[in-house]
Design a protein that fits this description.
The chain is 68% helix and 3% strand. It is built from 26 helices and four strands. The chain has a four-stranded mixed β-sheet with strand order 1-2-4-3, with helices on both faces. Helix 14 runs parallel beside helix 16 and helix 23 runs antiparallel to helix 24. The two termini are 18 Å apart.
Length: 471
C-alpha cells in the first residue's frame, strides 16, 4: 500500500469518527449514479490507469456540514457536504464538482503537493487536512487538529496552485462530457460560485477558498461549450435521458433530502410541511414535507405526502427514491402500521440491487420477524462489499435475532474494521473467541473465520504502531 493511501486511510478513519460523518444510503446511491460514470469515463480516457484505479480507494464520503464544499483527500477519498447537494439544481452541476475533484486525484495533484512537503511528517499533514476541514464548522476541533504556527503556514502551501486548478477544470470537463453529462453544468456551477463570491462569501462557501474562481477559469469553461449551447439545463420534470444518467427530477429529490438532513431547526421543518400541503406541491416539496413531518411527529401527514410523492413519480427514475422514502417512514418509530404497503415495499427492496433498497429491505425484514431472510440477503451483500459497515451492523442484528451470537459478534467486528477501527475490531473478535464453548463450537466454520480475522487485524495494528513510532 502506498504512503498516500495509508495517509488517506488514517484521515478517513478520523472522518468516520466525526459526528458530522453521514452514511446515508439514499444519498450515497444517488452520488454513485454520478460518480461511477465519471470514473468509467476517466479510465476510458486514460486519466486513471489500471494501477492507479486499484491502488486508491475512490470512495465518496458525505458530511452533514451545511456549507457548500467538496474536497479531495490523499488516497483517493473524496468528500461531499450536504450543503453542496442542497444548493445544486441539476445533476450536471454536482457532476462538474465531482469531475473536478476526481481530476485532482487522477493528475496526482495531492501526491505532488505531499512530495513538496517531505519535511512534514505524514501525521502532521493528516492533522492539517483534518483541521482545514473542521475550520468553520467547529473552530475548537480545527485548533486541536492544526497544532502550531508551522502547520498553519504549511497548510497554505498545500492548497492547489492555479495551474492545478486549470488542469482539473480542463480534464474534469472532458471527463464529465465523456460520461454523457451536459457541459453546461460546469458553467452553471461556476455561476453559482461566482455569485457567492460577489456577496463576499460569509463562510457558507468554503469551496471558494480552496478552489478560488477567477475570470480566466470561467472564460475557459464557457469557451469549451459548443456554439449555441443553451444557457440552462433540462427542466426538473425532464424525462430520463437515454444515457441512463439520473434525471433532474431525481436530483431535485436528492437535494431536498440533503436540505432536510442538514437542518436542525423545527421552524424550517414546519415551513416545508406547509409547502407540502399545497394542492399543487411538486415532488421535491412533497419529499421535504414528508421527511419534515416525520421529524415533527406528524406521521399520518408524512405518510400522506409519501403516497402523493409515489404517485407523482410513477414511471420515472425518481420512483425508487419515493419508494425508499415510504419504506423509511414506515420503519420510523411511531409510524402508523400499514402491513400491506410494508410487505410490498420490503419484498421489492430485498430484490433490488441499490444499497439503500437492500438495507431498508433488511430493516423491514427484521421489523416483520423475518431475520433469516434479512441475514441471507445481507450475507450475499457483504461478501461482495466487505467494507459496508452499515450492512455489517444490520447483519449483526439479524444474527442476534436468530440467537447466533458468534456470528453477531463477528459481524460487529467487521463493521468496525470497515471503518479502520482496528482496536474496536480486535476487541470484538476477542469477545467472540471468549464466548462459552457451546456457542463457539456450534459453528466451527465461523469460529475459524474469527481466528483468521483476528490475525489479520493484529497485523494491521502492528503496522499502525510501526507508523506511529516513525513519527
Amino acid at each position: 500500500m502506498s504512503a498516500e493511501r495509508r495517509l488517506g486511510d488514517r484521515i478517513a478513519r478520523s472522518i468516520y469518527r466525526d459526528p458530522d460523518y453521514l452514511d446515508d444510503p439514499v444519498l450515497g446511491d444517488y452520488l454513485q449514479l454520478l460518480w461511477q460514470p465519471l470514473l468509467a469515463a476517466a479510465r476510458q480516457r486514460g486519466e486513471v490507469p489500471t494501477e492507479l484505479a486499484e491502488r486508491l480507494a475512490w470512495e465518496l464520503m458525505i458530511s452533514r456540514d451545511r456549507r457548500v464544499n467538496a474536497f479531495a483527500l490523499p488516497g483517493g477519498y473524496l468528500g461531499v457536504n450536504l450543503g453542496l447537494l442542497a444548493v445544486t439544481d441539476r445533476p450536471e452541476e454536482l457532476a462538474s464538482v465531482l469531475a473536478h475533484e476526481l481530476s485532482h486525484v487522477s493528475q496526482r495533484h495531492i501526491a505532488r503537493l505531499m512530495s513538496n512537503e517531505q519535511r512534514m511528517a505524514p501525521w502532521m499533514i493528516a492533522g492539517m487536512i483534518l483541521g482545514a476541514l473542521a475550520a468553520g464548522s467547529n473552530p475548537n476541533a480545527a485548533g486541536a487538529a492544526i497544532a502550531g504556527s508551522s502547520a498553519v503556514a504549511a497548510q497554505q502551501s498545500l492548497n492547489f496552485s492555479r495551474d492545478m486548478e486549470r488542469e482539473a477544470d480542463r480534464i474534469g470537463f472532458g471527463v464529465m462530457t465523456g460520461a454523457g453529462f451536459d457541459g453546461q453544468g460546469f458553467v452553471g456551477m461556476f455561476d453559482k460560485l461566482q455569485q457567492a463570491s460577489r456577496l463576499n462569501d460569509d463562510g457558507a462557501f468554503p469551496y471558494l477558498r480552496s478552489h478560488p474562481l477567477n475570470s480566466e477559469r470561467i472564460a475557459d469553461m464557457q469557451a469549451r461549450l459548443p456554439a449555441g449551447a443553451p444557457a440552462a439545463g433540462p427542466r426538473a420534470d425532464a424525462p430520463v435521458r437515454a444515457t441512463g444518467l439520473p434525471s433532474a427530477a431525481l436530483h431535485a429529490l436528492a437535494a431536498a433530502r440533503a436540505r432536510v438532513l442538514a437542518e436542525r431547526n423545527s421552524t424550517r421543518w414546519a415551513a416545508w410541511v406547509e409547502l407540502g400541503q399545497a394542492a399543487g406541491a411538486r415532488a421535491p416539496e412533497l419529499y421535504a414535507g414528508a421527511m419534515s413531518a416525520q421529524r415533527l411527529g406528524q406521521h399520518a401527514r408524512a405518510a400522506e405526502f409519501a403516497a402523493r410523492l409515489r404517485q407523482a413519480t410513477a414511471g420515472s427514475d425518481a420512483r425508487q427514491a419515493a419508494d425508499a422514502l415510504a419504506l423509511e417512514l414506515l420503519l420510523s418509530p411511531g409510524a402508523s402500521p400499514n402491513p400491506e404497503l410494508l410487505t410490498e415495499l420490503r419484498d421489492a427492496a430485498l430484490a433490488a440491487e441499490s444499497r439503500a433498497q437492500v438495507l431498508l429491505g433488511a430493516q423491514a425484514a427484521l421489523a416483520s420477524g423475518q431475520a433469516p431472510r434479512a441475514a441471507a440477503r445481507l450475507q450475499t451483500w457483504v461478501v461482495e462489499r466487505p467494507r459496508d459497515a452499515l450492512a455489517w451492523q444490520l447483519l449483526s442484528r439479524a444474527h442476534q435475532a436468530q440467537g447466533q451470537t458468534l456470528r453477531a459478534v463477528r459481524a460487529d467486528a467487521e463493521a468496525r474494521a470497515a471503518h479502520f477501527d482496528w482496536d474496536g475490531a480486535l476487541e470484538r473478535l476477542k469477545a467472540a473467541q471468549a464466548l462459552p464453548p457451546a456457542q463457539r463450537n456450534a459453528d466451527p466454520i465461523e469460529l475459524a473465520i474469527v481466528d483468521s480475522r483476528r490475525r489479520d487485524v493484529e497485523l494491521r495494528l502492528r503496522e499502525a504502531m510501526r507508523e506511529d513510532e516513525r513519527r
